[in-house]
Structures are given as C-alpha cells and as structure tokens.
Amino acid sequence: MVTQYGIKYAVNLITAHFGDLVAKVCECLLRKGPLTLQAIVRSTELTSSQVKNSLLVLIQHNCVQAFILDQTGEHGDGAKQSTQYIALFDNIIQRWRFPKFLTMVSKKLDKQCAELLEGLLQHGRLSLKQMFDRAKSGQNGGDDVVQEAFVKLLNAHFIERCPASEPVLTNPTKEEEAARKRAAKSGKILEVQETLEQRVVEAAMPTEALRFLFATETEPTADGGKDKSNSSSVTPGEKRKHDALESEAECGATDEQVVLWRANFDEFIWCLRHKACIENVRARFDDGAVIVFGAMLEATRSAEKKVKTENSVPLSLSSIYEEVIKSEEGRNITFDRVRASLVQLSCPPFVKAANESYSVDFKKIIELAQNEEVESIVLKRYGRDAYRMFRLLSNSGHLLETDKVADATFVEKKETPIILYKLWKDDYLQLEKLQIGVKQIPFQLWKVNKNTLKVHVLDEMFHAAFNLSQRVAFELEQEKELSNVLQDKRVNRLRKRLLLESSQMKLDDAIMLFHDF
Amino acid sequence: MHHAISFSYRMRCYSHHSCEDCESEQQRYQRYSRIGTSSTFEEIVISKGPAVKRMNAKRKRPDTISDSVTEQERIVHEVIRSKQDMGISQQDMKREINLHSNLIAKCIKSLVSKNLIKEVKNIHSRRQKHYMSAEFEPSNEITGGAWYVEGSLDKEYINVLKEQCWRKIYGLKVATLEGIADAIKRSNVSQIELSKQQVEEIVKALVLDNEVMEVRSTGTGEFASIPVGKACYKCAGKRGYGGEPKLGALASIPCGVCPQISRCTPDGIISPITCEYYKKWLEF
C-alpha cells in the first residue's frame, strides 16, 4: 500500500541516489499513477529529453516499469496501444535495504557472491559479460570465479532474469472497471493503483521456468530459445512463455540479444520474513522450540509459492524430527523433545496441528508481531491505561461502550472517555454514537479497525523513517563542518550517527512487517 | 497463614461516611475477618465491600414515615424513596419537585438528621450530592461495584489482587479460573471471599496488561488435567510480573511517541532538524 509519507520516503530515496531531476519524474508517477511520456512532460514541465533520460535511469534500476495498455475501441474500432510508465513503489523502498541483502548473501553464500550482487545492486541490471568486465576492472577474480558466483546466486534465486520491457496489459473487464469506480468514490484510489502495479509486474515477469534459467553455452535468441543447452521444462505453446520470449527478444539495453540479470527482491524479502518469524519465536520460547521451528521452515521453504504465504505445507512429526537432527544444534534433540516443542509452539498458535500433521501459521505470527508493535506505540505515547483499553478493543474486535471499557480495564469512569478521545483523535480508534431516546445522552461506542489502523501506523513509520534520514543527512553535514574540531566532539558525532542509523535499520524491519510480510 | 505483604490498613464502608458510624462497622468487621491485633507481623488487610455489604443487611422498610416530618419533607422523601437503590441528586430533585431549591436543601438536611435518608457517592457525578432513602443499599451502578470505595476505584486493592493472581498462575503453570480462585482462597490472600466473577475480572485485566495469556486446553501435555476446549491462563513471555513489554521499533525513537508527529514537516516549525525530542535523545 502506498501512503502519503510512503511517497515522500520513496522520493527522498530516489533523490539521494539519482538526484532531483529523476526524483521529480518518479514523484510525478507515484502521485498521479501510470502516465504516458507526454503526460509526464506536461505534468513535470521538464523537457522531453530530461524525462526520457530520467525514465531510462528509473527503468534500469527497476524503479519504473513500462507497459502497453491495450485499449480496444468501444464500437469495434482498432485497438489503441499507448506506452505508459508506472512507478514500482515496492522496488523503490527496497533500495534502502541493499546493505541487508549483501550481509545475507555474505553469510549464506560467500564473499564473491556478495561482490557480484553488489554490482547488480549498484547498476540495477547487468548482462553476464558486463559482470565479467566489472570483475576484471575491479580485479575481483577471473570469469570462472564470476560465473561460479553467478550460478550460486541464481540457484539460490537471489538473482533473476529481468522482466519484459513493455508487456501488454489488456483492458480491464467491466467488473474491474465497476470496482475501480466504486473505489474512486470511497477514496481508495491508492489500493486500486497497487492492483495495477501488481498486474503490470506480473505481466512483465518471465515465467517461473525462465526466470532462473541460465543458458550455459549461448544466450537465448529472438526466435524463442532454440538453445540446446537449455534444460528448461517450458512447454511450447504456452501463451506466457511465448510472450516472455518475445519480450526477451525485445528487451535489453543494447542492440545485442543479451539477457539482463538483476537482484530478485522477492527472495530477499522471503528470507527476511522467515528470519523475523524465527526471532519472534525466540522471544517467546526456549532454544529447543526455536530449533524445531527453524527446521520446519527449512523443510517447507521450497513448497512456498509466494512471499506472503499464510501457512506452510503440513509436515508429520517424523519429517520434522528428521529435519531437526540434520542441523548441528538439533543433533541432540530427542523425538519427545520435538513433540513437546510443537505443543509449546501451539500456544500462541504459531504452529497448527491437524490430523497428526503440523504447519506453521505465518499469518498469525506476523499479525501478533504487528499487534505488539502498535501496542508498544500506544503504551509509550498514551500510557498504561490506554494500553489496556486498546488491547481490550483490539482483542474484542467489535464496538464496546465507554463504561464497559472502564469496567474491564479498571479505569475511573470519568477518566475513560478522555483517554479514548485521545486515541480516537489520533486515528487509533473508531467512534460511533448510539442515540436511544430523544432526551438521553448518546452512548459512545469504540472500536479498533485493524485494516485502517495498519495503514495509518505504516504511514507514521514512513514519516519517522523520512525524519530519521533527514536527521542523518543533517548530522553528516555537521560532521563535515566539524572535521577540524576536537577528537571527543567527533566521537560524539559518530555515536549520534550510529544511533540514528541503527534506529533506521530497526524501523525498516518494522516497515517490512507491515508492508512486505 | 497470612502473607507478609505490607498494605495500608484502611476501613471502608459503603453505607456510612461519618467517623462514628465507621467505628461501629470497624468493630463488626474485625469480628468477621478475624484480623489479629498483634503488631509483630504485617498482615494483609483487604477489607472489601462485599463482606461489609453482607454485614449491612437491608433494614426493614418502615411502613409509615415518622409524624415529625413536614409536608414538604414528606414530598422530598417520597421522591427520594421512589428512586430506590439508584438515589437522586439534589439537582435532579429540583426538576422533579416544584419547590424552591433552598427549601429542598432544608428538607434534605432535616431528613438526613432524622436518619430517613443518607448521602451516598455516585461514581458518575462525584461532585454532586446524591441521596437515597435509608432503607436501601446503593446499587452497583452508582457505587461502581466491588472495586469502588467512596466513589473512587480502589486501585491499590486491585493491584495487590492482580499480583497475587499472577503469582498463583505462575506457580500452577497453567490454570483455570476455578484453579486460580481456589489457590487464592487457600492462601488467604484476601480475607474476603472473592467470587468467581471477581477473579475473572482480575485475570482478564492481567490479560489486558499482557502479563497473562488466555489459551484453550488441548487436553494433552501441560493441559492434560484440563478438559479440552476449556479456557485457561498462562504467564505471558519470559519476563517477570510488572516487566515492560518489548519496546517496538517506532516506539523506541522520538517520532514514535511524539504528540506532534502529524504537524512535523521538513521545512516546518516542527521538523526533524529542529526537534527538541531528537536533541535530547541524541545527547550523550
């Protein structure tokens, strides 16, 4: 979801990396949705050349995707095809996480893989030849070393083929159009645009078979992959494969038919999601439960179809045990201990048991983590009484009258509405009034709407992240000015910056919890 | 056996407010609760409404009002009595009776002195005086129920009970409401017998404090002795009683707790560059 401060945060990132001109074009697309080149020129009041160059930079770095909207005329007229550009908000905010991705690859794979990935992150997308050239100029090993690192990254799905340059999107159906109009009326424009962003991304993406396919001898050619070394399982005649290969023929920054590769953000987010779930388990349970939980994730990872998987595939107790004892820390864990850990993990229900099988409930884990984050804000900002009230309303899921809230939370009846009003004023609660009888004072009913609250909290997080980046920039400027000052003042400045940057890291984890997981 | 927890000794009465009345109630209470007079050890005194209320059985309703009241006093008394255990404020009485407010006040004073009516605390309007006919006990709606004393929430008592309930749950590892109530009763934490509903209210408050979590019995493992599906309670997390929940990412930075976040802009009067909260946070 794209919130107001989400846009500011994203534009701030683009400004820091690519300058004001590119940021202006990006902001225009983020605020107004997909536009043609001419529309961007009119809106930004930049020259056509400036807009084109900015778009090229943004496309190169996977922040914008071009697509063709196929608009068939109403009365059977010829189809209109116009190229439009859409900003990819999800990809833009990944830019802040590049250091996390590099650390992950260093730990899971090796230093060479991290160096190769660094090149892809710096340049947005590269062909294999460009990767070889970069390694040579940086003296980071020969072609063999680079290729080996490349294959490791590809096998781990940390890199992928670039998407099609201009996929064709068909007209929305009548149902979709009606939904869009309803959404526009209720002010949910941003949600509808997100759906379009997802459609565009999906249309541009190569098929799953092609996405991580590496042709060892020759690159695929325009006629659709007659390369003999392909071990692809792609079946001829599939429409998507046909589109993808045609797109492969069209895409690429050069005239040669070369395959471009880029970092696969989905895989990194996947890994970070699993890591966050494990940390949540670690905070609540003992080491044995953490090892069992980790083993379950490892065993079911390949069966997960998408990043935001709600439940893992079910596993039997014996399968879980086999996975547990594979790891060094799990070697000494007994079968009974595994069973006991699974019982532990069912309360709260991080693991669900059904028919002697166990599955991880990712949705529950993420939801509990999100609740904790919001409750922490309420506790710190409004105090303990407000914390209890918020938890009561959040857990009940329905409207509660003021006195009921007072009774359940052991707060004075006169103080209760004051606290509830503060929460309501800051959009943490919803209020409804119920009038019974003409002369009576209306009842006040309170509720937590988790969906709208989640969007609100996410916007506050983006606002805070934006503020932190502004402050970091300010402190850096101050450091430059104080370069000749006493050592202890410089040390102080450094400590400030470290505190700010570690807070940025931690806050970004929370943003992922609400936006990406 | 008494627990050695210090607790200020206080008597509370629901139906009386003058010291003379309290003293007689105090003597009665001591007889019921068997509180020792020794000063060599601290005792828990948890004097509470329910026992005091039981002691104060409803007096018999007089069939006729005393002949010593005037006609206006009789009218005022009838209005007050018609409100039974809800009582009525002086302000509301003025709306119902067509008498001058000074006269109403005079009648009330007289009726109080004759013990025909009494002043009670109403938690919904503590500043206004509230009156009730002498034969009624104030309802929970105006007293606030078992957790209120003289119109105010008895937070000290509630906090003591909460901690004790938590300790029982901690000791039992997994506990039902009945189990917690039994444990409280056996350890004589409260000299007053807590009803199951009262225990439930306290335990649910612990859930809201995130000290305890409510779970459903699976009938196996640690739930083996509890019927499947029954609600039970466990201590939440690894921290002890009263520990702070884990601090979230947003809550750990100034923006997360700032009441002015909605007004903060890069170039505004309130901005991350000029922010006082940031300045204090970054001071080493």
Automatic annotation (TrEMBL), chain A:
UniProt-annotated location(s): Nucleus
Residues annotated as domain DNA-directed RNA polymerase III subunit RPC3 winged-helix: 374-441
Region (Disordered): 220-248
Domain of life: Eukaryota
A Pfam family hit: WHD_POLR3C
Nucleus found in the keyword field: yes
Record keywords: DNA-directed RNA polymerase, Nucleus, Transcription
Domain RNA polymerase III Rpc82 C -terminal: 149-367
Keyword Heme attached: no
InterPro entries for this protein: POLR3C_WHD, RNA_pol_III_RPC82-rel_HTH, RNA_pol_III_Rpc82_C, RPC3, WH-like_DNA-bd_sf
Main location: nucleus
Ranges for domain RNA polymerase III subunit RPC82-related helix-turn-helix: 9-67
Subunit: Component of the RNA polymerase III (Pol III) complex consisting of 17 subunits.
Matches recorded under PANTHER family: DNA-DIRECTED RNA POLYMERASE III SUBUNIT RPC3 (PTHR12949:SF0), RNA POLYMERASE III DNA DIRECTED -RELATED (PTHR12949)
Family: Belongs to the eukaryotic RPC3/POLR3C RNA polymerase subunit family.
Function of the molecule: DNA-dependent RNA polymerase catalyzes the transcription of DNA into RNA using the four ribonucleoside triphosphates as substrates. Specific core component of RNA polymerase III which synthesizes small RNAs, such as 5S rRNA and tRNAs.
Protein's name in the database: DNA-directed RNA polymerase III subunit RPC3
Organism in which the protein naturally occurs: Gossypium arboreum (Tree cotton)
Classification of source organism: Eukaryota, Viridiplantae, Streptophyta, Embryophyta, Tracheophyta
TrEMBL record, chain B:
InterPro entries: RNA_pol_Rpc34, RNA_pol_Rpc34-like, WH-like_DNA-bd_sf, WH_DNA-bd_sf
Location(s), subcellular: Nucleus
Keywords: DNA-directed RNA polymerase, Nucleus, Transcription
Transmembrane region(s): none
Family per similarity comment: Belongs to the eukaryotic RPC34/RPC39 RNA polymerase subunit family.
Protein name: DNA-directed RNA polymerase III subunit RPC6
